[in-house]
């Protein structure tokens, strides 16, 4: 589904290189966890996949469903099935969640030549999804993320993911700042979503999310490169030994701190 | 005659000539209009003329009225244009059969297009002079030349009286409509609204035109809100983009009264809303909100004055502006808290969404406080559409045009949401949805400090 080949990416503003040759292959049905210390480039990778213009890809290729991804603008990537759950979801003052998600879903259905949902059809699914994420309907009638707590914002991201049902969901530190109940709810959302037809990339600093979502692969990102890959057991090992252990294992010297 | 008066006389001689002609016509037609009020007003106008920035007049610093002062407008006081029907009006402004309606065509009360449904209200044409009428007691002709000239040329208008304790069931719709004319025309809409003690009403004033001429509307509305009375007031300004509009509203509030107003103003060649609210007695509160949209080379100036003249009074001013192209907007909010007005609270805010690098807003909320035991806060912002909000929407598959219009509409919604009159709220939502020009954010990913311009689609 996703083939990342030797991706190098820089911060658009100052051309600082953050990603220094990433290779990653993700197949349908797989859950990949990307772990790493602060500044290793985890979030940059997530943002590069979504087409965030703060970053520029200087070399390498990314294919999504056998098509070149890098030439597509962010909205087309979303329509083709990529979903980024933001580390810091934006507040959209005055834009109702209901209206926003309906418009996004309609755009996707139109793009894939499917019939748009009626307001009633949408409302039914939306209510069920909202309830499954343990968010009050009242909150979702308000402006997108406005005045939401950190946990509510992350749950709102999961509602959007479930509604849009993307082929590839990229969760950028969705677990950060969550209490244990919110973490379980978010994990439930991901487990509810995952299937043999779609793939998930979990970007996380901590191992604890992986107690609730079992990844197929764990990759450790150090200084813009994947230093080590393995199965779920690698996450456990990181928990007990810390990132320094991988840093030592990795032949690459720990260079300057990049922007995560 | 003093030197200064002579200068004014020369510059505005056309108005003075028109006044003589108008006087003669009034005398010949045995009009019941108050002669002394008008003659005082023309004398005042002769003395002060139109306000100009030159005199160091802070209140008119950003709104140049020379284009108005230098143009010859025709005052067609004999006009009885009535070739209008309710369908034509309902196409340009909120207009419903189930509302009390007062229609003034070029300032003249139109009986055919007016109706009173509520039993507890009196609606009169100013030409049918009410002997107890308090016309002219709220809007001071000395305060500015536009009020003076409007008062001097009172030809007709509307008087609305809501009786003691009466709770108005249907909204009262006051439609000021100007029609086309071969020459640029000036109209002087005049409205007097009186809410007696403990009464309540929803009143909407709209100023519209059904032509694209460069007419000049110089409107004055006086509002008296009695003790314990509640007025929900709305103002809809959407005249010709090449026209001129100066609207002055003066509100006097008694004890424990409430005045809530929400305005929508579309810019024009020169547009100005002057609002003065006097909180005269304890417990009076006002909530003043407005939304303005300017495009092309349009201009709109919202000039708001609130006078806290009694203890325990409350005021809130909150405005939002959307500016496109090379348009200009001004927000000037001034709140005076007198020494007597202890335990009062005053808030002021103005936020602007700048869609183009060529657009500019001058915003100045200001507080003048002489009491020590009060609460007050003010603030103003102006900015472009943020990149990260656009990115968030694109990442959900919305195209640039949709994302931009969602954010513009969302920006406006905060003001529109404060409208409790359902039909008016829906009218504005619909207006933004359908009639608002479509824009597309252009600067995405290009500049971090300034989000970049928004282009028309």
Q: Strands, helices and their partners?
A:
The complex is a heterodimer of chains A (260) and B (457).
Chain A: E1 2-11, E2 17-26, E3 31-35, H1 42-50, E4 55-64, E5 67-68, H2 74-80, E6 82-85, E7 92-96, H3 97-111, H4 119-132, H5 137-141, E8 143-144, H6 150-164, E9 168-172, H7 180-193, E10 199-204, E11 217-222, E12 225-230, H8 232-241, H9 243-249
Helix pairs in contact in A: 4-6, 6-7
Chain B: H1 3-11, H2 13-28, H3 35-48, H4 66-69, H5 86-90, E1 100-105, E2 108-115, E3 121-125, H6 145-152, E4 158-162, E5 172-178, E6 186-187, E7 190-195, E8 200-209, E9 216-225, E10 230-238, E11 244-253, E12 258-266, E13 270-279, E14 285-294, E15 299-308, E16 314-323, E17 328-337, E18 345-354, E19 360-369, E20 375-383, H7 387-394, H8 400-416, H9 422-435, E21 439-441, E22 454-456
Parallel strand pairs in B: 1-5, 4-7, 5-8, 6-9, 7-9, 8-10, 9-11, 10-12, 11-13, 12-14, 13-15, 14-16, 15-17, 16-18, 17-19, 18-20
Antiparallel strand pairs in B: 1-2, 3-4, 21-22
Helix pairs in contact in B: 3-6, 7-8, 8-9
Structure description:
The complex is a heterodimer of chains A (260) and B (457). With 260 residues, chain A is of the alpha/beta class. In chain A, 37% of the residues lie in helices and 27% in strands. Chain B has 457 residues and is α/β, with parallel strands linked by helices. Chain B has 9 helices and 22 strands. Chain B has helices at residues 3-11, 13-28, 35-48, 66-69, 86-90, 145-152, 387-394, 400-416, 422-435; strands at 100-105, 108-115, 121-125, 158-162, 172-178, 186-187, 190-195, 200-209, 216-225, 230-238, 244-253, 258-266, 270-279, 285-294, 299-308, 314-323, 328-337, 345-354, 360-369, 375-383, 439-441, 454-456. Chain B has a 10-stranded mixed β-sheet with strand order 2-1-5-8-10-12-14-16-18-20, covered by helices on one side. The mean pLDDT of chain B is 91. Chain A binds chain B through residues 12-13, 50-54, 73-75, 77-79, 83-84, 86, 89-90, 92-95, 99-101, 103-104, 107-108, 111, 143, 160, 164, and chain B through 387-389, 391-400, 402-403, 406-407, 409-414, 444-445, 448.
């Amino acid at each position: 589904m996703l083939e990342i080949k030797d991706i190098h990416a820089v911060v658009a503003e100052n051309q600082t290189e953050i990603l220094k040759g990433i290779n990653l292959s993700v197949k349908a049905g797989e859950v990949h966890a990307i772990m790493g210390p602060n500044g290793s480039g985890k979030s940059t990778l997530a943002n590069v996949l979504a087409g965030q213009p703060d970053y520029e890809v200087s070399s390498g290729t990314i294919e999504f469903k056998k098509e070149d991804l890098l030439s597509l603008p962010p909205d087309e990537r979303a329509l083709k099935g990529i979903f980024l759950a933001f580390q810091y979801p934006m507040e959209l003052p005055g834009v109702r969640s209901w209206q926003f998600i309906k418009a996004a879903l309609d755009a996707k259905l139109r793009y894939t030549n499917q019939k748009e949902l009626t307001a009633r059809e949408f409302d039914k699914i939306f209510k069920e999804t909202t309830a499954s994420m343990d968010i009050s309907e009242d909150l979702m009638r308000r402006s997108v993320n406005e005045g939401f707590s950190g946990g509510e914002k992350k749950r709102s991201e999961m509602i959007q993911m479930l509604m849009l049902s993307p082929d590839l969901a990229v969760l950028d530190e969705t677990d950060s700042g969550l209490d244990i109940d919110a973490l379980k709810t978010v994990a439930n959302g991901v487990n509810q979503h995952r299937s043999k037809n779609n793939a998930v990339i979990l970007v996380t600093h901590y191992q604890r999310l992986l107690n609730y979502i079992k990844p197929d692969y764990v990759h450790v990102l150090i200084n813009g490169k994947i230093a080590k890959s393995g199965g779920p057991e690698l996450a456990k090992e990181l928990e007990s030994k810390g990132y320094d252990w991988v840093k030592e294992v990795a032949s690459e010297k720990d260079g300057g701190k990049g922007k995560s | 005659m003093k030197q200064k008066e002579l200068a004014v006389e020369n510059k505005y001689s056309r108005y003075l000539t028109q006044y003589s002609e108008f006087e003669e016509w009034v005398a010949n037609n045995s009009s019941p209009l108050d002669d002394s009020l008008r003659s005082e007003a023309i004398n005042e106008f002769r003395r002060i003329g139109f306000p100009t920035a030159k005199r160091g007049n802070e209140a008119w610093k950003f709104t140049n009225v020379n284009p108005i002062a230098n143009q010859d407008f025709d005052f067609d006081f004999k006009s009885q244009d009535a070739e209008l029907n309710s369908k034509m009006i309902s196409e340009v402004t909120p207009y419903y059969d189930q509302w009390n309606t007062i229609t003034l065509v070029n300032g003249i009360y139109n009986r055919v297009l007016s109706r009173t449904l509520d039993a507890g209200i009196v609606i009169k044409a100013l030409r049918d002079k009410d002997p107890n009428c308090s016309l002219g007691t709220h809007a001071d002709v000395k305060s500015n030349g536009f009020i003076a000239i409007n008062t001097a040329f009172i030809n007709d208008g509307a008087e609305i009286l809501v009786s003691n304790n009466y709770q108005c069931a249907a909204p009262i719709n006051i439609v000021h409509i100007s029609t086309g004319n071969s020459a640029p025309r000036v109209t002087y809409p005049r409205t007097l609204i009186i809410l007696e003690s403990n009464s309540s009403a929803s009143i909407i004033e709209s100023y519209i035109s059904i032509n694209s001429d460069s007419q000049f509307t110089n409107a004055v509305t006086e509002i008296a809100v009695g003790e314990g009375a509640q007025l929900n007031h709305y103002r809809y300004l959407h005249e010709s983009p090449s026209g001129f509009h100066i609207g002055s509203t003066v509100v006097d509030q008694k004890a424990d009264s409430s005045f809530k107003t929400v305005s929508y103003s579309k810019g024009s060649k020169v547009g100005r809303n002057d609002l003065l609210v006097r909180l005269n007695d304890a417990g009076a509160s006002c909530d003043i909100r407005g939304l303005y949209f300017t495009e092309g080379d349009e201009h709109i100036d919202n000039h708001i004055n609130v006078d806290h003249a009694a203890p325990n009074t409350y005021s809130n001013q909150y405005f939002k502006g959307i500016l496109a192209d090379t348009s200009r907007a001004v927000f000037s909010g001034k709140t005076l808290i007198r020494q007597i007005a202890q335990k009062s609270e005053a808030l002021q805010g103005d936020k602007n969404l700048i869609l183009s690098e060529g657009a500019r807003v001058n915003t100045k909320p200001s507080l003048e406080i002489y009491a020590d035991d009060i609460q007050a806060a003010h603030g103003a912002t102006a900015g472009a559409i943020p990149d990260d909000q656009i990115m968030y929407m694109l990442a959900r598959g919305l195209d640039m045009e949709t994302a931009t219009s969602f954010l513009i509409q969302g920006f406006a919604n905060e003001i529109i949401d404060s409208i409790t009159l359902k039909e008016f709220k829906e009218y504005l939502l619909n207006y933004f949805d359908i009639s608002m020009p479509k824009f597309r954010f252009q600067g995405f990913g290009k500049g971090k400090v300034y989000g970049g311009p928004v282009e028309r689609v």
